[in-house]
Amino acid sequence: MPGRVVSIYLLRDPRTGNVRYVGQSLHGEGRLKGHFKGAESGSQIPVYRWIRKLTTLSLVPEWELQEEVLEEDWVGVEQWYIAAYRAAGCKLLNCTDGGEGCLGYKHTEEAKAKIGAKTKIRMSTPEAVARVVESNKTRVLSPETHKLMSESHSGHNVRPPISQAEIDALAERNRTRVWTPEMRAKASESARNRPPRPPTSEETKTKISTALTGRYVSPETKASMSAAQFRRQERERKLRCDE
Fold first, then answer.
1. 10, 66, 97, 239: most buried by Cβ count inside 10 Å?
2. Alpha-carbon separation of residue 203 from 99, 198, 214, 235 (angstroms)
3. What is the DSSP string of 107-132?
């Protein structure tokens, strides 16, 4: 199955015609809008500073299609053009040698801190979070992307099986745990501020009922579940008494 088509493009200085930037895009000339947004954001990336300087002169970069290649080939092609134009004496504004947009480029610790601070501010409002959530809901990933994501996460965060000795140690620690007044106050405050749980839909109830139908639960498991429920009720009762 052929991959998507990637445009390798140039940005030329409208005053001299010189090539100042080599880039790649899945959206053709539409990528120029992204460059303008980056320039308007105040970013100090060289190409954005250059675009801001042009706009103060009522000028814009000249976008030129250099070549269209398949998605699996664009990295090497972009790197070749960047190297070729640099060898020809063009003063390119690319920060890297091309490929993935970051090959060879490393942010300074100061830059990382600034980026992190701006991101926190940008994502500190409920509106910003809602926009991200809504965007992810409507985002459609191709089968190839799903495969790459699955492969990249394969083997990550895989916890080895817990031994019976570890289970017994955890159970004993929970049974003998001493709740300080500070811990009780914090748990009580968290319980009061917890949003109400939405009612279980009839569809979900049916699924749960179907999944549990015919399921065998041993006497030992029943006793363990009963004891856990009793302990949970006792903790809730103590918290209510502390309020």
1. 10
2. 48, 14, 19, 32
3. --HHHHHHHHHHHHHHTSSHHHHHHH
Residues near 36 by beta carbon (within 8 Å), at least 6 away in sequence: 51
DSSP structural state of residue 139: -
| First-to-last C-alpha distance (Å) of the chain | 64
Strand order from edge to edge, sheet including 19-25: 19-25, 5-12, 62-70
Query: Which pLDDT tens digit goes with each residue over 130-145?
Result: 776 776 676 666 676 6
* Count of C-beta atoms within a 10 Å radius of residue 23: 22
Q: What is the pTM of this model?
A: 0.44
- pLDDT tens for 147-166 read 766 766 665 555 667 778 88
Instruction: Give exposure, 73-100, as e/b (b: 16+ Cβ within 10 Å).
Output: ebbebbbebbeebeeeebebbbeeebbe
Residue 57 has pLDDT above 70, yes or no: yes
Question: Within 10 Å of residue 188's Cβ, how many Cβ atoms?
Answer: 15
Report how far apart, in Å, the C-alpha atoms of 191 and of each of 82, 146, 199, 219 are: 58, 38, 18, 32
Pairing of strands 5-12, 62-70: antiparallel
Of residues 51 and 30, more confidence is placed in 51
